[in-house]
Amino acid sequence: MTELRQDPFTKDWVIIATERARRPHQLFHVAPRPPEEGPRADCPFCPGNEAMTPAALYEPRDNGTWTVRVFPNKYPALRVEDSPERSFDDGRFIRMGGLGMHEVVVESPHHYHSIDTLPEAQTCEIINALLARFHDLKRDSRIKTLILFKNSGSVAGATIEHPHWQLIGVPVVPPEIRRKYAVASLHFDEMGQNLYRSVIESELRSAERLVLESDHFVALQPYAARVPFETWIFPKAMQTSFGQLHGLAVNDFARVLKRVLAGVVRALGHANYNFVIHTAPFEDEHKSYFVWHLAILPRHSIPAGFELGTGIYINVTRPEETARYLRDVIR
Amino acid sequence: MTELRQDPFTKDWVIIATERARRPHQLFHVAPRPPEEGPRADCPFCPGNEAMTPAALYEPRDNGTWTVRVFPNKYPALRVEDSPERSFDDGRFIRMGGLGMHEVVVESPHHYHSIDTLPEAQTCEIINALLARFHDLKRDSRIKTLILFKNSGSVAGATIEHPHWQLIGVPVVPPEIRRKYAVASLHFDEMGQNLYRSVIESELRSAERLVLESDHFVALQPYAARVPFETWIFPKAMQTSFGQLHGLAVNDFARVLKRVLAGVVRALGHANYNFVIHTAPFEDEHKSYFVWHLAILPRHSIPAGFELGTGIYINVTRPEETARYLRDVIR
């Protein structure tokens, strides 16, 4: 079966072509789960090697050792010392200084671990570290939005194996995010509804792409999933900003993330994936057009010429089927 | 030096962060050029194995053997038998049938070859095959645009090693292409100029990102290059559609492509890359807002969480420097 589906949030198309899964090459780049071992001498994120990174910005301790460690990226994409000044060469080439922040959040002292097997309390530590940095970085009004993400596995773009997140604060609202707001604003103007809330409610009713529902969260696979097993986790409180996450919901978020990832790992092996937290730009947090969410994107085939030329992804699975699989293994 | 640059055609931002090139991991996934060998028994694109693929749609012959071979993709993303009918589940989930075409163009009978060392006459054969299929597929008015691309190397998404192109005809105008037209239309309304022509003329004047100029083509690196050595080849005749390429310009295009790719290979080794031909949607060909072009995208780091979350690429080189390098080695 082959069809095109339109993402209700971006209006981008995805091709669902299940027959392509029959192609004679591996569906997923599956890496075996590495053995548990002690700290590695050459890993800049392992305990004992703290001098290999910039000084910590956040480093809670338990029994004398840090549990999570946040520091500025040694090779930053953007820097807090730069200016956001713009110049307009020849009236058409617009550039601005590389102002921003780029931080690393090391998930735990253990070189080999994964959120699906990590104790929930440790995942709470990670989420609290992300929240602490979110609140601190947001105070700089030159920054328009913050991207929180994790690259796991070399196929997903990780260059250091020790599990870590990155936070990048950017001095512009990325056009891709503007476009989502344009779609959501139009929906609000036409229907008087928050588009994200409407879709989540509709997904809860039909339940065919639902993965998991907890006290505070809903995990579901998007209608126009770009890759097999793409899964989004939304707060039921329908907050616009990740910064509004607090209290018992933090623990629930840790639990849901662990269960969903365990299901994905069960399906795909210790796969390569990205986590991306989508949150409202700071100046749009008060507009209830959006709901923040964490997207899990397992890395299947490599986006190539077709995706680069059109923005259209080709997914070889139907999210209804992969969601059912996850529901079954998670239950 | 770190700065943000805005792409004048899409308004997307790119971060140019040259210090990140110092990171302790390989800049490029460089594969050595494979040895020249005979046909391979297990390759579906090698001579003698024609029965492993669908029947040819285009297959010019010289001395009894085919020179280039075009056939439908055995595992198509879209199919010509499908309907373009739409349905609107729950008023918000829009889908349509998987109508389209997906063809493969095998570049030559040789399993191991590369356009930078291939005889120019053979590259003309390839371009003529692309043009022949373009004109034929365009006759189906249900197809809105055609994407012509080549994935070279596994890091660039190639699943079969034998060099080949793909053509995908889609029944929608991809939103990414609509957005480019929206930017170009606004520019025309404000300035009375074709944005692409204006930028090309400005690049020819400044020459700092110019790679090569021939009788019929200009090769340059875009101001907001997304990856190191990204290079675009534009026709000086400023045509909107690849389908307008003809006559002596075909030979010149083959020559320019060969010289530019030879420079890229000299810089990066036998690197992984994508070619993408950007051409006007069929119904927009008569509007002079656009200029068709071939984009060469060497594959550097893997787009990961940040790019997925923002659409912002991080490039560790300045196009002015990589263009100067190419000018020097190509001269």
Summarize the structure.
The structure is a homodimer of 331-residue chains. Chain A is of the alpha+beta class and 331 residues long. Chain A has helices at residues 120-138, 175-191, 195-206, 248-268, 305-310, 319-330, and strands spanning 2-6, 13-17, 30-31, 61-62, 65-66, 69-72, 86-89, 93-97, 101-106, 145-152, 164-170, 210-213, 217-220, 231-235, 270-271, 273-278, 293-298, 313-315.
Notes on the protein architecture:
The structure is a homodimer of 331-residue chains. With 331 residues, the first copy, chain A, is α+β, with helices and mostly antiparallel strands. Helix content of chain A is 26%, strand content 24%. A 9-stranded antiparallel sheet of chain A has the order 6-9-11-10-16-17-14-13-12, with helices on both faces. In chain A, strands 1-2-18 form a 3-stranded mixed sheet. The interface between A and B is large, with 77 and 77 residues.
Tags for this model:
homodimer; 331 residues; alpha+beta; 6 helices
Through-space gap between termini of chain A: 28 Å
Number of helical stretches of at least 4 residues of chain A: 6
- Biggest pleated sheet of chain A: 9 strands, antiparallel
As a percent range, the share of helical residues of chain A equals 25-40%
Cα gyration radius of chain A (Å):
20 Å
The tally of beta strands of chain A, per DSSP, is 18
- Topology of chain A as a string of helices (H) and strands (E): EEEEEEEEEHEEHHEEEHEEEHEH
Oligomer: homodimer
Strand ordering within the main sheet of chain A: 6-9-11-10-16-17-14-13-12
Which overall shape of chain A is indicated by the principal axes computed on the Cα atoms? globular
Biggest interface and which pair forms it? A-B, 77 and 77 residues
Assign the structural class of chain A, choosing from mainly alpha, mainly beta, alpha/beta, alpha+beta, or little secondary structure.
Answer: alpha+beta
Portion of residues in beta strands of chain A equals: 15-25%
* Low-pLDDT runs of chain A: none
Mean pLDDT rating of chain A: 93
